[in-house]
Specification:
Elements lengths: L7 E3 L5 E6 L2 H7 L3 E7 L2 H29 L6 H15 L3 E4 L2 E4 L3 H13 L16 H10 L11 H13 L5 H15 L14 H14 L4 H21 L19 H4 L6 H14 L2 H13 L3 H5 L6 E2 L6 E4 L14 E4 L2 H13 L14 H16 L9 H12 L4 H8 L6 H4 L3 H20 L2
Antiparallel strand pairs: 1-2, 2-3, 4-5, 6-7, 7-8
Helix pairs in contact: 3-5, 4-5, 6-9, 11-15, 12-14, 12-16, 16-19, 17-19
């Protein structure tokens, strides 16, 4: 039948080549429209080399996407231009200039003036004044820095500068890079209503901050809770810029800016009523696959976050020993929410049975192969919510509501706040000091969870 591989082509010369089109939006960036590689002179060689060449193409496109997205962030800001110019000026200063038979270092004032005059003479001239037209580029600013003895004031850092630095330092390389970068773009869009990206950070005012907040609340009709989350992002970005650019006299006007939350109580997610819980369990058992049923049972019986369970490795489920538990730790494909989220969660009753079934069914390192990946929790949430919405259209009832159910059960069972936090993974504060080692904390969490589940059984 012959070799059948997408992108593998047999030439008239009898050799095999890999040919694949570059995505349209990357062609100008990569300066090529097609990716070509030699695979071999025989089908066997082509089959052997295809995976490596195909992976090379994917890497090339992925890297280009990241670089192109950063470069498309708008052109260089004045501060970026100045920094590049400072670097170029240092290089120029190492050169020499010949004037009237004399060879001078480029850093000499006379030589620097010659370089500057030569550059500006090449710029377009105003017909009436004869003065250069347009903003100098990096080369122009470099010779100006050189002519001023290396002393030329840097432009003030702007909001756009803060955003680029924040993305580079805090987001690039993160496992959720794309989602976080998109969120920052949305933040910049909301900011643009009141603040131009070219505004210096040091000039931001409280009035600017109120305008941004009110635009989201009034014009975009966002819920107060949503506005609060975006304001947190804005505060972080502006504070980061002020700190990293050393703006000692600047203040962040978004700090402690109130967002009215009169309706916040109505917006909170609700615990799921017992009758609704039974209906959802029945819906999942009848219409969902075993993976979703096991995840639900583990969530309901532990109070864990969805991402904590969907991102488990098989090795995280510890079943040998007197107290079976989930060992919740950070993984490259799934980070935990806070430091307090790193914990051991006891497995009891149905949650234990579901975990045992999941381990037996697992075929690789991840407990749930379909969801044990970056942003896998999003897929698990979407799949489960289809079944939840088949039972109730109450917007306050979601998968996360199961944590509220567990919080209520722990509270009704008389479990202290400290011990509830051991189970649920809220910020612990001095918890590790109160309960020495992980084994002791596991024992305390196990007693708390048994009390909560016994209270539920008795209701």
């Amino acid at each position: 039948m012959g070799l059948v591989l997408k992108y593998a082509r047999l030439t008239k010369a009898g050799t095999w080549h890999y040919r694949r089109r570059i995505p349209t939006k990357l062609r100008d960036f990569l300066k090529q429209g097609e990716f070509k590689r030699y695979l071999g002179s025989t089908e066997r060689e082509a089959l052997k080399n295809f995976p490596k060449v195909d992976a090379e193409f994917e890497r090339l496109v992925a890297v280009a996407h990241r670089k192109a997205s950063r470069l498309s962030d708008t052109s260089l800001s004045p501060l970026d231009v100045h920094r590049e110019a400072e670097r170029l000026a240092r290089e120029l200063a190492q050169g020499t200039v010949t004037i009237g038979g004399r060879t001078l270092p480029a850093s000499d004032p006379d030589a620097a003036d010659i370089l500057r005059d030569s550059y500006f003479a090449q710029l377009p001239q105003d017909n009436e004044t004869g003065e250069p037209v347009g903003e100098p580029d990096i080369n122009g600013r470099a010779v100006s820095i050189l002519a001023n003895g290396g002393r030329l004031a840097r432009p003030a850092p702007t909001l756009a500068d803060a955003k680029r630095l924040y993305v580079r330092e805090r987001i690039t390389g993160d496992i959720n890079e794309t989602a976080k970068a998109n969120r920052i773009e949305r933040v910049m869009e909301y900011l643009s209503h009141a603040i131009d990206a070219t505004r210096p950070l040091s000039s931001l005012t409280r009035e600017d901050a109120r305008d941004v907040r009110d635009h989201m609340l009034r014009d975009l009709d966002m819920r107060p809770a949503t506005v609060k989350r975006y304001m947190n992002d804005i505060r972080a970005l502006v504070s980061f810029g002020i700190t990293e650019y050393g703006l000692r006299d600047a203040s962040n006007p978004f700090i402690r800016l109130p967002v009215k939350t009169e309706i916040s109580v109505q917006e909170e997610r609700s615990p799921i009523p017992e009758a609704t819980l039974r209906a959802i369990r029945s819906q999942l058992a009848s219409h969902a696959g075993p993976t979703l049923v096991r995840i639900w049972r583990m969530l309901e019986g532990t109070g864990c976050r969805l991402g904590e369970v969907s991102g488990l490795l098989v090795a995280d489920v510890v079943l040998d020993g007197a107290l079976p538990y989930l060992n919740l730790v950070h993984h490259p494909h799934r980070r935990l929410k806070t430091a307090g989220s790193v914990r051991r969660v006891p497995l009891i009753g149905e949650a234990l049975e579901a975990a045992q079934e999941a381990v037996d069914a697992a075929e690789g390192d991840t407990l749930f192969a379909r969801y044990g990946r970056v942003r896998g929790a999003d897929g698990a949430s979407a799949a489960i919510m289809r079944h939840v919405r088949a039972i109730t259209d109450d917007p306050k009832i979601v998968v996360h509501s199961l944590r509220h159910n567990m919080e209520d059960r722990l509270t009704r069972a008389g479990v202290s706040e400290f011990d509830r936090n051991l189970v649920l993974g809220h910020a612990r504060g001095g918890m590790s000091e109160r309960y020495g080692g992980p084994d002791a904390r596991l024992e305390v969490a196990e007693r708390a969870l048994r009390a909560a589940l016994a209270d539920r059984a008795g209701r």
